[in-house]
Every structure is written in structure tokens, then in C-alpha cells.
């Protein structure tokens, strides 16, 4: 197409690439290799407050995700320090059967500590099972702390979260889309106090029939996330933990 300047013939080495002066060069389409999660099964995001759900393979009713072992270019390049005791290839922080919290998925149980050979390297992986979501997550032990994987919160932390529920709501004067994003970040931070702040701020409209669907969805996600950890810490069931949270939310504000 002479004169158009919009097409490139990359197959013919002897023909120069023609481009209009007003047309900027095409951007590079190299895939990014800095993403935190490597998706093992095809999937899609459902909402701003839910972690990604991935399609299971045929014949399987569970989803399997492996956290990426690629280094983060924005992270420090200082060498990692080996634990004070035990061989450096082991992870003394977690053991099979431990209840743990992963920020984007909540409370799970360590199903195993396994080794896998990936790209010519041997990785120690913490295998976490989330029964409520029928999800299995594998996190390299070297990335466990950076990914936010942690043990259950202490009773003191949960008491602080319960006290937060009794405080006055602090709703910023901002567009709902911006507030919804902030609430989603707080929920997926995995911090009980931050999740309690979301419940406190949104509980005032819990009985409002005109409340939007997205607001109700965020509130229910925060309530579910905090109730599961409270139930695990107090060794009770989720329904009892939910009733306790609701009792604190309904108490007069201080």
C-alpha cells in the first residue's frame, strides 16, 4: 500500500520498513516476567476484592497455583541470610498441619513441604490447602516471608481487631470506585485490623436496601475473611466467630 505508511513487511529483508512521520513506532510486546503469580491453569479475575480463581484441569475439582520463583527486580539484591539453626534448604517456620494465612486467600492449612525441580533448579515449596475455595497453593520457602505468608495472628492482634470494630466509622469523601479499591487492598493485605476497619466503615449501611451490590460484596468478603481467622485463633466454628464479630459491630461506638 504505497503512501499509507501503516504496514510493515518484516518478511522481506531487502525492503525498508515504511512509517509515517506522524505515526509513532509500535511498542515492544515482550511479556513481563515480573508478575508474582504464575498461573498454572487458565483463569480470570472476578472482582477487585476476590483473589483470582483459576479453572481446574478436566477431571479435577481443585485448582492448583504455584507462586513464581522469579526474582523481583524492584527487590533488594542483598543476599538472603540463612536461618540461625538447621540447614538452609529447610523452612523451620512452617510444618505439615500448621494453620497459616495467605493474604489473598485467607486461612489455609499446610498440606506438605515438598521439593520440585523447576528450570533446572530445586525448590522447597510450602503446599497450602484452602478447603473452602478448593484451592492448593505452592509457595517457595525462600519467598514465603516476602509473599506475606504467616502464622495465625496472636490473640492480642485479634483483640485489637475487635476493638477496631467498636470504633467510629471513618468514611472518606471520595468516589466509591476509589474507596472500593482501598477496601479491596485492605482485605487482601491479610491484616486483621485493616479488615476490621473495612467492616467498621461499611457496617453502618448494612441494613440499607439501597446499598449497592459491590458494597455488600466487599462487606461480606471482609466479614468472611476475619471470621475464618478468628475461628481458627479461638478454635471455634465460623458461625460462632461471625456472631461475635456482629455483636462487636452492633455495640455502641466509642
TrEMBL record:
Residues 66-84 have a biased composition (Low complexity). Pfam families: CarD_C, CarD_TRCF_RID. It comes from the Bacteria. Residues 1-27, 59-91 are annotated as: Disordered. GO terms for biological process: rRNA transcription. InterPro entries: CarD-like/TRCF_RID, CarD-like/TRCF_RID_sf, CarD-like_C, CarD-like_regulator, CarD_C. Residues 93-203 form the CarD-like/TRCF RNAP-interacting domain. Residues 8-17 have a biased composition (Basic and acidic residues). PANTHER family: RNA POLYMERASE-BINDING TRANSCRIPTION FACTOR CARD, TRANSCRIPTION FACTOR YDEB-RELATED. This is CarD family transcriptional regulator. It comes from Vineibacter terrae.
Amino acid at each position: 500500500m504505497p503512501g499509507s505508511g501503516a504496514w510493515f513487511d518484516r518478511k522481506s529483508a531487502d525492503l525498508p520498513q515504511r512509517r509515517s512521520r506522524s505515526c509513532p513506532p509500535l511498542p515492544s510486546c515482550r511479556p513481563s516476567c515480573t508478575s508474582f503469580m504464575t498461573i498454572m491453569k487458565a483463569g480470570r479475575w472476578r472482582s477487585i476484592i476476590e483473589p483470582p480463581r483459576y479453572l481446574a484441569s478436566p477431571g479435577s475439582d481443585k485448582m492448583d497455583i504455584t507462586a513464581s520463583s522469579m526474582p523481583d527486580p524492584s527487590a533488594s539484591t542483598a543476599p538472603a541470610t540463612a536461618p540461625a539453626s538447621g540447614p538452609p534448604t529447610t523452612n523451620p517456620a512452617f510444618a505439615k498441619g500448621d494453620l497459616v494465612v495467605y493474604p489473598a486467600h485467607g486461612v489455609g492449612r499446610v498440606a506438605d513441604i515438598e521439593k520440585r525441580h523447576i528450570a533446572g533448579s530445586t525448590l522447597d515449596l510450602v503446599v497450602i490447602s484452602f478447603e473452602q475455595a478448593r484451592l492448593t497453593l505452592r509457595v517457595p520457602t525462600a519467598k514465603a516471608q516476602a509473599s506475606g505468608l504467616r502464622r495465625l495472628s496472636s490473640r492480642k492482634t485479634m483483640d485489637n481487631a475487635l476493638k477496631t470494630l467498636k470504633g467510629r466509622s471513618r468514611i472518606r469523601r471520595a468516589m466509591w470506585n476509589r474507596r472500593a479499591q482501598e477496601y479491596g487492598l485492605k482485605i487482601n493485605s491479610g491484616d486483621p485490623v485493616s479488615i476490621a476497619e473495612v467492616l467498621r466503615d461499611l457496617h453502618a449501611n448494612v441494613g440499607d436496601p439501597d446499598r449497592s451490590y459491590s458494597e455488600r460484596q466487599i462487606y461480606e468478603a471482609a466479614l468472611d475473611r476475619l471470621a475464618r481467622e478468628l475461628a481458627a485463633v479461638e478454635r471455634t466454628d465460623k458461625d460462632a466467630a461471625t456472631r461475635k464479630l456482629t455483636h462487636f459491630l452492633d455495640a455502641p461506638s466509642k
